[in-house]
Structures are given as structure tokens and as C-alpha cells.
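INFO  loader      accepted 1 record
INFO  loader      residues=269
INFO  predictor   begin
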Amino acid sequence: MATSSNTSTALLDIAEVSKSFGAVNVLRSVSLTVAKGEVVTVIGPSGSGKTTLLRCVNFLESYDSGSIRIDGKEVGFRPGPARNSGARQRRSERDLAAMRAETGMVFQGFNLFPHLTAAGNIMLGLTKVRGKSKTEARSIAEHWLGRVGLGHKADSLPAELSGGQQQRVGIARAVAMEPKILLLDEITSALDPELVGEVLAVVRSLAEDGMTMVMVTHEMAFARDASSRIVFMADGGVSAVGPPKEVLAEETTNERLRTFLARFRASHF
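INFO  predictor   done
INFO  writer      dumping C-alpha cells
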């Protein structure tokens, strides 16, 4: 199912991507396009393929068939004459590292290096991947820590930060690399409820600045308010896609979607 009328202008173009783990088909011919500046939220039940899709976009998981292009460049593989695994060659690890730098990813777990300060966590990619000097990297780190409200925590270790603060450092680390697209995978799921708002406020601010984002979340009210479009996945495929008001409408005729959303209605999203 294509989700944009003009894939030639898409920053992210996912075309008929499939992925299996053994006999389990996790992604089934998934197609999705995301334009520059869009915030696309992926929702769906556990096991529907949401996280695997994000990991394929960042090539943390190799996909079996189909095509993923960011800004026109094939992700993970050198393009072959056909969109099938037999015609493709995996890119070198050096090429993969460079491509991953274009797709910042923030995970469910904070994934900060425990021995590095907040600033140090952000500086690492800037010096090792982007080739910045330590002085320039420190300046960039301080800027983004300020943007996420943690300018006073630059020299704190992760163990000295709350979960919400650690996640905000994770977001700052990702955006400091100036990625073309930001991938957010259930970034509030490991947080206590009272810390969720501070993280979502940072994401909303980035969206308002025009950051292109694809996020997986169960925060339906946030998805409704912050998304350009919402994608509903079920059984490894795209089952519904459209503007938030359309996808989240109570009168949707998609039975699987209606059943999924019923769990969240009590929270008045």
C-alpha cells in the first residue's frame, strides 16, 4: 500500500519490504513514504512489525526483499537490477555507518554509555563519525542539552540522571548528528508516567522545528496531536494510513483498528 501520491519527493521511500525471522513473517510487503518535515506515527498491537520496520530503515536489521531509500539512496544494499535479495550486495560496514548517521534513532532503553557524561555521550558520534574537533563537539553538545532542558547536566553521568533526563540526552545525541530523519521507538515505554510529558515535549518541539520523524508509540493523544499522518500496522502489514482524525476516528470501518483503539478510549485521547 503506497501512502503518498508522489514518491519522487519522498525523503523516505519504503517499497514492498518484507522481513522474516525463521518461519515468522514479521514484515509483509510494507510500503510507506515520508516527506521532508513530516511526522509519521506507527501504531499497532505488539508483534505487528513496528520496531522491526524502524530497525530496517536504520539497517540494524537487514530486510529480505523490497527497497528502502533515504533521499534517493538505497539503504543497506548497493542497488541491483531488481528489487530482490538475489540482485543485491550488502554495503560495506563503512558505508553502513555513514548511512546510519543520516537516520538518528532513539530506543526504548536509553542506551547511553554509562562511563560517559551527558555531553560525552553526545560528543562521541560527533568526533568519531562526523569528524568534529572536541571543542566543536562540546559546543554542539551543550547547545542540544540546552534545547532539551539539560544544559545544567552536561557533566553528569547517566546514573545521576532520571529516566526522563536520560531519554532527553538520547534524543539530543541523535539530533546533534543532524540526521535527515529521526526514528523514535517507544521512547516513553520505559519511563514512569510522570516523566513521559517532559520527553514528549522535546519531541513536539523538534516537530515544530520541521524535523522529519517516524515514531512508534502507544501515546495516542500525543500521536493525534503531533502527527502529520498515522500508520496502523497489523500482522506485519500496513492496514490503515491517513491523517490522525481519520485513522483514530471512532467510526472507522477497519475492525482490527477499532479493536486496537478501544483499549485507549478510556484515556480520552
